Sequence to fold (104 residues):
Amino acid sequence: SSDLAVLTEDAQFEMPPFLTWFDGGARIGAFLGPHMRRFGNTPVIRTSANGQPAVALYPATGDGAHRLHALHVLSLSPAGVTRIVSFQSLELLGAFDLPHVLPT
Fold:
């Protein structure tokens, strides 16, 4: 899929502290694709973490509000995204200057 074109063939995806880990753009896409489709049109906020580019994801919840779900920290190379580390702990995400709920 063209959505996966930004991932390098040997890209890695992890979600600490969970033991979930995927190697390769195709495997990452197979895992993330169904989740992102379920999220639908999800707003993101671009930011950075440890000097690396990052995006905060805000899927809609049952009440229709867009709530902070995860921060994806990206490692980049000239070939594309080589690694995504997805942090989902709201305690950890509190260290970032990110809204917990997007205004409607």
User: Anything to note?
Assistant: Helices lie at 25-39, 90-93.
